[in-house]
Specification:
The complex is a heterodimer of chains A (about 170) and B (about 170).
Chain A (H helix, E strand, L loop, with lengths): L14 H86 L4 E8 L3 E8 L2 H15 L2 E10 L2 E9 L8
Antiparallel strand pairs in A: 1-2, 2-4, 3-4
Chain B lengths: L1 H68 L1 H8 L4 H11 L4 E7 L2 E8 L3 H10 L5 E12 L4 E10 L10
Antiparallel strand pairs in B: 1-2, 2-4, 3-4
The chains are: A alpha+beta (about 170), B alpha+beta (about 170).
Chain lengths: ~170, ~170
Amino acid sequence: MYSFIKPRKKYSIDTFTYLWLGFTVIVAILLIVVGLYIDNKNNLFESDLKALKEKNLKVVQKQKEIKQKIKEYLKEERAGKSAYKINTSLKNGIKNLFSLVPNQIKINKLYLTKYKVDIYGETDSPKTYKLLLEPPLKSIFDKSKVGFTKKDENKYIFSSYNTIKRSEHEK
Amino acid sequence: MKNNFLIKNIMFLLLFLVVLVIFLVIYIIPELKEYKTKQAILKKSEKIYFKNIKSLKSLEKERDLTYKKYQKNIEKYNKNFDIENFKSYMKSILKDSTIEVTKEKDKLNIKATINDKEEIYTLLEKLNRYTNIVKVDFPFEYKNSKSNKNITFYVTICNKKLKNCLNK
């Protein structure tokens, strides 16, 4: 038998197999691409997370600094207030002390510490002191002691030592 | 012939499914799981970050308010202390009196000759108005002689550099 047409080439793999393999390879490539995309996203998340952590750390650090600053401000205010309180109470204390002294008594020296007031002065008689100055001093201080020495006929020198107890928290 | 074709088709389908399952199980699903975990962590971190930012802003506001409220003493505390300036200030208070300011360790000793007791009150009151925080320290001494009246006392300067007054 003789044929007038050329014989068709015979492939070891037919077209149908090619189609299946091609489809499988394309799907595999697509899956790899999707996988790479997700992987890339994951890496981006990681770098974002790292940057966010650094930013957060800075914010926390700044918070600490501000808290410290507020503490300092409050401390400084306390220092100012305490100084004002001490100065004012000393002024008022001295003012009150002088206001207690009657005309018959003359103050020569005052020695004030935080818990003690020593008053040195002159009086016409110990009785005057005991009548006019001792009662108010005794009402202010916890302890009040006095000693007299005669200077001349009508004058006595006195030394008065007055103390107040320390409050519990100051001990 | 037809049977052959069907068997071939089934085999290819199986091959395709095997490839698909292998890719999904080994590659895609773990990546997706990681994606979800990381996304959740990121969202949580973002939430914390924004919360911290909010708290930072309120702290900044609190700091500014505190400063505004206590500005006078804060400025006084942070101002450098100049002893010469203090001396001239003290002299300006007691114009007709003599005043001597000397440094003793971390305190200043003040000795003044005054004309009237009222000047003590003025002096102590004016100390509160000085540009630094000035705290009177004991002992305070007042002497009254025939010719004049003397006062001696100490002051502490509460200042950033000197760090006095605090914790006392």
